[in-house]
Structures are given as C-alpha cells and as structure tokens.
Amino acid sequence: MTTPTWDEPGGPLSADDFRAASEAIIANIEQVIEGKSATVRLALAVMLAEGHLLIEDVPGVGKTTLAKALARSIDCSVRRIQFTPDLLPSDVTGVSVYNQETRDFEFKPGAVFANLVVGDEINRASPKTQSALLECMEERQVTVDGTTYELQSPFMVIATQNPIEMEGTYPLPEAQRDRFTARIAMGYPDPRAEMAMLNGHGAHDPFTDLRAVADAALVRRLIATARDVHAAEAVQQYAIALVTATREAPEIRLGASPRSTLQLLRTAKAVAALEGRDYVLPDDLQALAVPVLAHRIIPTADAQLNRRTTDAIVAEIVHRLPLPHDRGRSPYDTRAAGGGGTQYESRGL
Q1: If you write DSSP's letter for every residue of 293-328 in order, what string do you get?
Q2: N or C: which end of the chain has fewer CB within 10 A?
Q3: pTM to 2 decimals?
C-alpha cells in the first residue's frame, strides 16, 4: 500500500478523505492484528484525540504487536523504549554531554523525541524512570538542565504493561496513569482469529509486508478534523456527570480528574469522526467510560476486599446514570430548535 496524497496542503479533511485515510490505517493494522477491530479503532481514536494509550494484559496476547503495527502504519519518527529495572530517566528524556572540542555541553535527545514512542512493559521500570514521562505526555515538552525542548506534533506514547500481579512489576504512579487517555486490554483471540494467525504468521513475519499508509502531516489533518466534531452542551454536561459520579461513588476513594473529562470528550469526538458523524452522541461517552476512566480511579479498601474491579464500578455508574434528553444531534439538523430532538429514556432506573 502507498501513502495517500491529498490536494489541500493543510487543515481539516473532507468527510470522504477522512474516511478513506482512517480506514486505510485500520485495514493496515488489521493485516497484523486478527479479530480485534474494536481495539484497533479505539487505538486510532486515542491518537486522533491527541492522547496516549496504555495496553494492559497478560504476556503473549499482542500488546506490543498492536503498538508496532500502529507505529509502522504511519510514516513518521518512531522510537521504542524497552523498560527495564536499570533504565534511567536520562535514557528517556535525554542528557547534556560535555563536548571537549567546543568546550561546552550539548544536548543528546532521548527516546521521547519522536512522533510515536512505544514503551514496552512500562511497569518493569522504577517509578523514578516512569515519572520521566510526566512532562512530555502532558505538556509535549522536555526540560533538561533548565532548558525546555519542544516535542514535534503529532506526539503519542503507546505503552504496554503486564498486570501488577506479574513478577518484577511496579504499579504506575497515579499521576502517570492519569496522563494515559485510555487503557485497553487485548484479550485472547477467538478460535477463528487464532487459526488465521497460525496460517498467516507461522510462515513469515507479518511486519515484513507492512507499509506506511499515512504520514505525520496527514495525521495532523486527521486530528484537526476530529477536533472540529460538534459536541452539544447536553453531551458535555453528561460527560461532566459521568466523571462527577466517580468522585461521589461510595466504592471509590479517588475519583477521576478534570483532565479525564477533557480526554473523554476529545476521544468521543474522534470516535464519532471514525463512525462518519460530525457530532457526538451520549452513546460514544458510554462506550468510552470504562477505557478512559477506569484506570484513573482508586477503589476503597472494602471494594478491593470484595474484589470489585474499577471496570465493574465504572460500568455500574454508566448503567445507573440517566442519559440526557438531548442526544446532541448534528448542528446542521434542519428540525426546529424547539423540537428537542430524539428523546432518550433513562437507563437502569
């Protein structure tokens, strides 16, 4: 496959061009990832929301494969970091080295100076090294020895981690988890997908034939298009209600942050764009609540003793919270303003 070319030099894409470019990336990734279409689409949505992705699951289910496939589908700078217990923060951000010829210090950029940073098994590094990513993930810049260096756009961290019960792992700090837009799990493939994997991957490396189908400039235009998706006030209020409910739930000791509200809405806009809509629905927020919010909250000791997972707690909140009456219809809807749009019945009440 070849990299598409577009007529316009910059700015948002038309609906047809956006669909063609996004579907090309998805189809390219699915050459390597079998039977995980929803996971692939969510990973791309996180990228278009200018967020970062945490892939958590047991070894051998394709966490790194998904990260590498997404990185290889885009013709841009990619760096991979293998997180180990002896990895230093300077290995991630960079270090100033003394040059004897110029008799001055010069900066040697670290692995984060790339469009896509693939962090493999991030929770095998010490919390000190993990924290080296805090500034670059939130502010898209790196400060070393008092000098600040801007990171290029687009910038995305795709990190994989094993469950914390695995040997030799460190739990991510709360501030680090909060900077990941979404956390997804690969899960085991179904028998059909696993058979396709045996037939397709057994003979040769699937990455051999994988070619980039987009570049950094095109990704920036995809991001601009997703950013322009309309979110009605009622939909924004529903996003706030979802996040506020995590702060008030009796089973949660630490609720989701205001940053999560912003990232929830941004990801919903990207999902809506991928589905061919120019407006966000409450359904988008409901579908994203668990992957965007569950990894940010901390359950109470009683909830942990009862083996209540954060995924289950957030899913229950979504089921219990009533939906807005205004579905957030398209701003181009020609119906009268007083019509109220499609009415939504409250769920779980």
Answers
A1: HGGG-EE-HHHHHTT--HHHHHHHHHHHSPPPSS--
A2: C
A3: 0.85
Q: State whether 241 and 298 are in the same domain.
A: yes
Residue 51 within a domain:
yes
Calpha distance 4→43 (Å, rounded):
21
pLDDT in tens, 29-78: 988 887 888 899 999 999 999 999 999 888 777 888 888 889 889 998 88
**DSSP per position, 216-239:** HHHHHHHHHHHHT-B--HHHHHHH
Domain annotation covers residue 342: no
Q: pLDDT tens digits, residue range 267-288?
A: 999 999 999 999 999 999 999 9
> 10 Å Cβ neighbour count for 91?
18
What is the number of structural domains in the chain? 2
Instruction: Pull the structure tokens for residue 49.
Output: 């929301």
CA distance 178 to 258: 10
Residues 140 and 101 in one domain: yes
